[in-house]
Amino acid sequence: QGYPMLRTLFFEFPEDETTWFIEDQYLFGSHLLVAPLFEAHSNSRKVYLPHGEWIDYQSGERFGGGQWLEIPAGKIPVVLLVKAGSILATSKVVQSTDQIDWNDLSYHVYPTQSHSAEGHLIDIRTGALCTLSYQNDELYLNGDSVAAAQVTLYR
């Protein structure tokens, strides 16, 4: 769609007037909320969560949206939240995307309360847009089941 990867909160949540004035948090894509720590020796910060449900990337704790909360950072010194209903694909650390083993991805599923999630993945080898969907405790990539060993579920 041509949207920028780094987005202000009001870009995704224009109906939420609180997001109009937040300058120290941002979205990475539409599913990751990033709230950096700016104070020296700080290990938490006050974060505004837009409507919806949010899951702490590091702890797995769930939070309701539409409110300000003091949220601790984990080992990584940032507050990073995933919007419920999202699926994140990750690979082992490599020096370049040319070195990613696209057959050995891990999938992190952050389902909604109704136990569903979806996401998209671009296969850089072919340029094809792949659809990930999670329903009935199964993860599917373009309609084919994904091996359970590759899936981490955050309930």
Q: How does the major sheet shape up?
A: 6 strands, antiparallel
Give the helix/strand class: mainly beta
Shape verdict: globular
Low-confidence stretches: none
Number of helices: 1
Strand order of the largest sheet: 1-2-3-8-5-6
Distance between the termini: 30 Å
Can you walk me through this structure?
This protein is mostly beta strands and 155 residues long. The protein is 3% helix and 45% strand. It is built from 1 helix and 15 strands. The chain has one helix at residues 9-12, and strands spanning 6-7, 26-28, 32-36, 44-49, 53-56, 62-64, 67-72, 78-83, 86-90, 106-110, 117-123, 128-135, 138-141, 144-145, 151-153. A 6-stranded antiparallel sheet has the order 1-2-3-8-5-6. The chain has a 4-stranded antiparallel sheet with strand order 11-12-13-14, with no helix packed on it. It has a 3-stranded mixed sheet with strand order 9-10-15, with no helix packed on it. A hairpin with a 2-residue loop joins β12 and β13. The longest helix has 4 residues, at 9-12. The two termini are 30 Å apart. The model has no long low-confidence stretch (mean pLDDT 91).
Please outline what is shown here.
The protein is mainly beta.
For this entry, give a set of tags.
single chain, 155 residues, 6-stranded antiparallel beta sheet, 4-stranded antiparallel beta sheet, 45% strand, globular
Set down the secondary structure blueprint.
Blueprint: E1 6-7, H1 9-12, E2 26-28, E3 32-36, E4 44-49, E5 53-56, E6 62-64, E7 67-72, E8 78-83, E9 86-90, E10 106-110, E11 117-123, E12 128-135, E13 138-141, E14 144-145, E15 151-153
Parallel strand pairs: 10-15
Antiparallel strand pairs: 1-2, 2-3, 3-8, 4-7, 5-6, 5-8, 9-10, 11-12, 12-13, 13-14
